[in-house]
Amino acid sequence: MKIRVYYEDVDIGGIVYHSKYLNFCERARSNLFFEHNKTPVWQGYHFVVRRLEANYLKPAFFGDELEVKTRLKGLSQAKVLLKQVIYKESAKIFAMNIELVCMRGERVAKIPPYFRELFVQVQNQKEEF
Predict the structure, then answer these.
(1) CA angle, corner 94, sides to 12 and 70, nearest 5?
(2) Active-site residue list
(3) pTM tops 0.85
């Protein structure tokens, strides 16, 4: 997913705020659902972040065009492990491993087929990064 860095994303020096990288990745994850004609919230099911590990490699600046790539690393009964990488002009500038847990209301739930089939499709894409 391509993302443009806007003024709201940067500090006075024009450098992207560290938290905005997480926002960019969140937007890309939501977009995965939309690209497959699904919604990230369905019949009371949704995903929450359980843990993440982020590596800030190089800065991005106001006006940059970035690309966020997402790959499935693992899938269990209730958890999804993803790797997300942000590129600027094909150079890796940010990388994150994130664990999502499926919830129904306030309880951990088994991932329903509605979502599971999406993750299988993402896994089969085998996008390199």
Answers:
(1) 125
(2) 11
(3) yes
- For residue 64, what is the domain's CATH number? 3.10.129.10
Q: From the CB of residue 81, how many other CB atoms can be counted at a distance below 10 Å?
A: 16
Over residues 13-23, the pLDDT tens digits come to: 999 999 999 99
Count of the separate structural domains present in the chain: 1
In three-state secondary structure terms, 35 is helix
Closest among 112, 121, 124 to 42, alpha carbons compared: 112
The residue range of the domain holding 116 is 2-125
Spell out the residues 6+ positions from residue 91 whose beta carbon is closer than 8 angstroms to its own.
58
CB 1 within 8 A of CB 31: yes
